[in-house]
Amino acid sequence: MTSELIEAFDENQNSIGVFSRDEVHRKGYWHHTFHYWLIRFENDVPYIYFQIRSKHKADYPGLLDITAAGHLMANESIEDGKREVQEEIGLDVELADLDQLGIIHYSLKREDFIDNELAHTFLHRMHNDEAPTFKVQEDEVSGIVKSEFDLFKQFCFKEIEELEVEGFQMFDDGDKQPIHKKVTRNHFVPHEDDYFETISSKIDSIIKG
């Protein structure tokens, strides 16, 4: 299997070469990623969507995460990042239809894994008369859930400890089951507090602009 090659940067965003994905994470090099967040209005109430990571993932299996996200390879542009949305959750999107949330400096560290991302972050707003038709890439994503955005923002700022989510999850036998439950921060990939606060604030300023 060919190793994925990623362009690496120092803390001043100067390119320092192209390395394998494993080496980029082992040495903690900064690198470009694509983050896609989906909001849909239902009776004018905004809901935000999260993916459930496959239980077969090496990192953070079964936890809730960004709607869709992934690394940009060394030969890819920001525009190419939209492939992650198609691959992971089956939605075709165009960058021109998305709101830019900017480049967010994002770090996640554990043992010999250091994920320092320059995350090119986008928001997709769907309105009442639109409905996403999800088709998940089951080796990456096992389901999709949503919550009321206003409650999610409170959750991000630790004003509430639990968040009610609903959606679906796929199982290895192909069975698709509805989900409706309460979750805590332990159910999410352990993104930094700053990331949750920044994302929820940026989204809030756009949808309530």
Account of the protein in words:
With 209 residues, this protein is of the alpha+beta class. The protein has a single domain, classed as Nucleoside Triphosphate Pyrophosphohydrolase. The protein contains four helices and eleven strands. Strands 3, 4, 5, 6, 7, 8, 9, 10 and 11 form a nine-stranded mixed beta sheet that branches. The chain has a two-stranded antiparallel ribbon with strand order 1-2. β10 and β11 form a beta hairpin. α3 packs antiparallel against α4.
How do the helices and strands line up, and which of them pair or pack?
Elements (H helix, E strand, L loop, with lengths): L4 E5 L5 E6 H7 L2 E13 L2 E9 L10 E2 L2 E4 L11 H7 L9 E12 L2 E14 L14 E8 H8 L6 E8 L5 E8 L9 H15 L2
Helix pairs in contact: 3-4
Query: Gyration radius, to the nearest Å?
Result: 17 Å
Quickly count the helices. Answer: 4
CATH top level class name: Alpha Beta
Give average pLDDT, whole number: 94
* Percent strand: 35-45%
Overall geometry? globular
From the structure provided, what is the oligomeric state, counting identical versus distinct chains?
A: single chain
Helix content: 10-25%
Low-pLDDT stretches are none
CATH architectural type: Alpha-Beta Complex
Question: Under CATH, the topology is which?
Answer: Nucleoside Triphosphate Pyrophosphohydrolase
Q: By CATH's scheme, which homologous superfamily applies?
A: Nucleoside Triphosphate Pyrophosphohydrolase
